[in-house]
Design goal:
The complex is a heterodimer of chains A (486) and B (471). With 486 residues, chain A is an alpha/beta fold. Chain A contains 17 helices and 13 strands. In chain A, the strands form two sheets. An eleven-stranded mixed beta sheet of chain A has the order 1-3-2-6-8-7-12-13-11-9-10, with helices on both faces. In chain B, strand 12, helix 3 and strand 13 form a beta-alpha-beta unit. In chain B, helix 1 crosses helix 4, helix 2 packs antiparallel against helix 3 and helix 7 runs parallel beside helix 10. The mean pLDDT of chain B is 91. Classes of the chains: A alpha/beta (486), B alpha+beta (471).
């Protein structure tokens, strides 16, 4: 049986089973104890958390009604700008950078008295699939600390999976919410491009980036999504949520819902993962849904298209880190150009430099048509093939990752092989679609497997409904042995 | 051999919107360094641009006023390059879908300078060098610009000068920019090449960057024309390069060669959505455009009968034309008002900005009143002129400055009386006149004018005097 952690804690606060300060202290204590092992947090904000908790307690004592998210301890990926709290993107180049403004999502949650425990670890500038490109070292998988939490939002997944945050916000450019959620056995929702404001999210690839929730269960994902999916005039690409809150239809019957499986998604997927996904399809059948198989040949272009577009945009987005206005600056230099060169050479890690070089190359004159322009055209092709797919099914069921969490150190040793593991997550970003990863069992090595449910644009309500029904019926979530025991 | 000059212009014009192109910071010139800035225009991580609609409207105004086609769909692109005054390391500009294309500006010799495109973009900040340090001021960063690019249609320095002046006049008329070259709100890059007269092959061009005065543009072009001709004459080749002009030495020098040219790696800015320009908006803007200086000038010549030189002077600044049109409302002779303005009122405005503002002490209404007194025969021209001087000094109205008794001229008896006195008290003038010196009569007319305090009609006085003498 599926159960909302947020709703449960909310009830506890409202019924005064515990105070918000007690709850927050519990999480801070657990964080301070377990973070040494998990390396989920790069900045812990105990003081501000307790301050907010005290405000919530006062509200409750005064008899005021509190919202579902009020007083709930949570975390933010360290690429979401927080005024007065350092926001590093886990890069040396922003190690001491303290924003002077809030990201829109943090403004929204702050106004909801969300209790921010701290900022969480990530691959440097969200570039990576293991969290190991972080300047602060990678976050560990709470189900087995010899394995990575995944990436790039590895810190959020490690914290939520390790019960040292109730929920967190990550960002997903090519799978960075869904993949670590899958690795850590929890839920990660990548919303439709434009559903959640990107204002204040430190950009990796602007046409692909999207902020979304990482939670232990689908209901919590719906609660957080409904709260943050708002139109924001500061983000021209923002549209907000369309239609009713996802929460309203979360538990609806899914009899007759058409669950599509694209054969290409299962190609090259590890056997235990494929089996888990096929079992999930069986669960859907038992719930009265119809499973339809179809072909999605354009899927083979997704990976190269993703890496060309993402790197191209990144090469431009990261040009601003020059040591002049903020962040790290190299110490010894002869003139301004030398300063910029040395700052960038020593301030960025290898993976970031690799992608900047790739992106610069594909945009440069003489190569633009062969790479960037071709990738843009193919992006259009992939988008239309997904549009067609939604003519034959309501949602698409796919593996989130072709395998379970990598062993520590494995991903960084072979970057190209690691790129290939993004194959199941990048199509959603290329098309701007919503996708949610839900735990669907454990692999032969005992590590969690995730199944992905993908929907048409702005159909978060539908995919979360499908996800909740599956979660409720299959119940594959298992709490890791870390953090706060409720 | 004779060589022909071939030149094209790229002109940056700062738009006079109140706020910047992608944020709500003020565009005001100057200010303490880095006080007209916010997280967006200094490109702090995570910030996003939001296109100011006014910028699009202003650019469309500029496009319509220069006979351009206005695109229905446009977009913003990133121009990537690294320089400390550019906080995002890319400038948001327009690459292959500019807002306006294919316009022209017609010169007085009848030639049309074709405008290839007008696009919108953000300005960069500014480096300040002080005591061996280089500081950056981002106040100007994000101020909206339009870049107006012409075809290589210029064949002389005079054409270039006229084009820049015309562009300035038009932009000011339609209110999109103050075009103050000395403050940098209008800056020109000139592409220049030479070729043997009669040839239709373009020579190798050089580009002179960032010139901020019409005089410098003319000098730089003359110098560069000479330099290129000398090179060719001496058997050398012109190298394609970017030059800067030094106004002290009046020479150009190389900034960078072709091989150092930036690869800007243009691509569509994913942070900004497609710009849809509804035709209704274009129509609306078209309707709101004022009569442009060229059309106004033609109308002054053809309908008001002004000489071209007057028409040109009165239409160069929008405020002056407005003043003139108010001053002649309901009057009979448009030339009189033109004479008053050009002959007398212009003396009180000297600088470019004074002409631009045209805040003169005589209001258009008061000038109108004076002209009407003249039209109605209540005062004569001499009195009108002297009254206008007084009006310029005091800012008063004509009716306040002219005595009631001075109105309506002189009756015949008084005129005759004054003429008689003039003849009687100037025997020398009389004899001179009779001896054939016709001009001698002027002295007597002067006497009459003086003693009638300008009220007498000088022509009538002269006739009367001559009749008296020759009897």
């Amino acid at each position: 049986m599926s159960e909302s952690k947020i709703a449960k804690l909310h009830e506890g606060l409202v019924h005064k089973d515990f105070s918000c300060t007690e709850l927050t202290k519990k999480y801070i204590e657990a964080t301070e104890r377990d973070n040494d092992t998990l390396n989920a947090y790069v900045t812990i904000t105990a003081d501000t958390a307790l301050q907010t908790a005290a405000e919530v307690d006062k509200k409750i004592a005064d008899g005021c009604e509190i919202g579902l998210l009020e007083g709930i301890p949570m975390t933010l990926k360290d690429n979401i700008s927080t005024e007065g709290i350092r926001t590093t993107c886990c890069s040396k180049i922003l190690e001491d950078y303290v924003p002077i403004y809030n990201a829109t999502v943090w403004d929204i949650l702050k106004n909801n008295n969300a209790v921010l425990l701290g900022k969480t670890n990530m691959d440097e500038f969200a570039m990576g699939s293991s969290c190991e490109t972080s300047y602060f070292g990678g976050a560990k998988n709470p189900h087995n600390i010899n394995h990575v939490a995944g990436g790039s939002s590895g810190g959020v997944a490690s914290a939520v999976g390790g019960n040292i945050a109730v929920y967190g916000l990550g960002s997903d450019t090519g799978g960075s919410i869904r993949q670590p959620a899958s690795f850590c056995g929890i839920v990660g929702l990548k919303p439709t491009y434009g559903a959640v404001s990107r204002y204040g999210l430190i950009a990796y690839a602007s046409s692909l980036d999207q902020i979304g929730p990482i939670t232990t269960n689908v209901e919590d994902a719906a609660i957080v999504f409904d709260a943050i999916a708002q139109y924001d005039e500061k983000d021209s690409t923002s549209q907000g949520r369309k239609g009713a809150p996802a929460y309203d239809s979360l538990k609806n019957d899914i009899k007759g819902m058409k669950i599509g499986i694209a054969r290409e998604y299962l190609d090259g997927v590890r056997d235990d993962v494929r089996k888990a996904v096929e079992e999930a399809a069986e669960v859907y059948k038992s719930l009265g849904a119809e499973v339809v198989y179809f072909d999605l040949p354009s899927l083979k272009y997704a990976l190269p298209v993703y890496y060309i577009i993402a790197c191209a945009e990144a090469s431009s987005n990261l040009g601003r880190y020059d040591g002049i206005r903020y962040g790290y600056k190299a110490e010894n230099y002869t003139d301004v150009n030398d300063m910029i060169k040395k700052t960038r050479s020593t301030g960025f890690g290898d993976e970031v430099k690799r992608r900047i070089l790739l992106g610069t190359y594909v945009l440069s004159s003489g190569y633009y048509d062969a790479y960037y322009k071709k990738a843009q055209n193919l992006r259009g092709t992939i988008i239309s093939s997904f549009k067609k797919a939604f003519e034959v099914c309501d949602v698409i069921l796919a593996p989130t990752v072709p395998m379970t969490a990598f062993e520590n150190g494995h991903a960084v040793s072979d970057p190209v092989e690691t790129y290939l593991t993004d194959i199941c997550t990048v199509p959603v970003n290329i098309c701007g679609l919503p996708g949610v990863s839900v735990p669907c069992g454990f692999g032969d090595n005992g590590l969690p497997i995730g199944v992905q449910i993908i929907g048409d644009s702005f159909s978060e309500a539908k995919i979360l409904n499908a996800a909740w029904q599956y979660e409720n019926a299959a119940n594959k979530f298992k709490a890791a042995d870390f953090g706060v025991k409720l | 051999m004779k060589y022909e000059l071939v030149a094209g212009f790229e002109t940056h014009v700062e738009l006079a919107t109140n706020t910047k192109i992608f944020c709500s910071c003020t565009t005001e010139f100057g200010g303490e360094p880095n006080t007209h800035c916010c997280p967006i225009c200094i490109g702090l991580p995570g910030t996003l641009p939001k296109l100011n609609k006014k910028v699009v409207e202003y650019a469309i105004r500029a496009g319509l006023a220069t006979n351009c086609h206005i695109a229905e769909i446009s977009k913003m692109d990133r121009k990537n390059y690294c320089y400390p005054d550019l906080p995002k390391a890319y400038q948001i500009s327009q690459y292959d879908k500019p807002l306006c294309e294919h316009g022209y500006i017609q010169l007085s010799n009848g030639r049309k300078i074709r405008i290839l495109r007008i696009h919108i973009e953000e300005d960069a900040g500014k480096l300040v060098h002080r005591r061996g340090d280089t500081l950056v001021d981002y106040n100007r960063g994000g101020v909206p610009l339009i870049e107006i690019v012409t075809e290589p249609d210029f064949r002389s320095v005079d054409e270039a000068r006229e084009y820049v002046e015309k562009l300035q006049t038009i932009m000011r008329y339609i209110g999109v920019s103050d075009c103050k070259m000395q403050e940098g709100s209008m800056r020109c890059d000139v592409n220049i090449s030479v070729r043997p007269e009669g040839s239709d092959v373009l020579g190798t061009r050089t580009e002179i960057k960032n010139m901020n005065s019409i005089a410098f543009i003319a000098k730089a072009m003359e110098y560069e024309y000479g330099r290129q001709v000398d090179l060719i004459e001496s058997g050398e080749k012109v190298i394609q390069e970017t030059l800067r002009y030094d106004d002290v030495s009046n020479t150009t020098s190389s900034m960078r060669g072709k091989e150092d040219a930036n690869d800007y790696r243009y691509f569509r800015d994913p942070d900004l959505v497609t710009i849809n320009v509804p035709r209704s908006l274009v129509e609306e803007i078209k309707e709101s455009l004022p009569e442009l200086p060229e059309a106004k000038k033609e109308r002054y010549i053809n309908e008001l009968g002004l000489p071209e030189s007057d028409a040109l002077l009165l239409t160069k600044y929008r405020k002056i034309a407005e003043y003139y049109e108010k001053a002649i409302e309901g009057t009979k002779n448009p030339k009189t008002a033109a004479n008053f303005i050009i002959g007398q009122i212009f003396r009180t405005v000297e600088t470019e900005s004074e002409k631009e503002q045209f805040n003169v002490s005589v209001s258009a209404e008061n000038l109108n009143e004076l002209i009407k007194l003249l039209d109605d025969g209540k005062i004569k021209m001499n009195l009108a002129k002297s009254t206008l001087e007084k009006m310029l000094e005091t800012g008063g109205k004509a009716t306040e400055l002219i005595d009631e008794s001075d109105m309506g001229g002189l009756d015949e008896a008084t005129l005759n009386d004054l003429c008689k006195q003039a003849v009687d008290s100037n025997p020398k003038a009389v004899s001179d006149y009779l001896a054939g010196k016709e001009k001698a009569v002027k002295a007597m007319v002067g006497f009459v004018m003086k003693n009638s305090r300008g009220k007498a009609d000088p022509a009538l006085a002269e006739q009367t005097i001559i009749k008296m003498i020759t009897g």
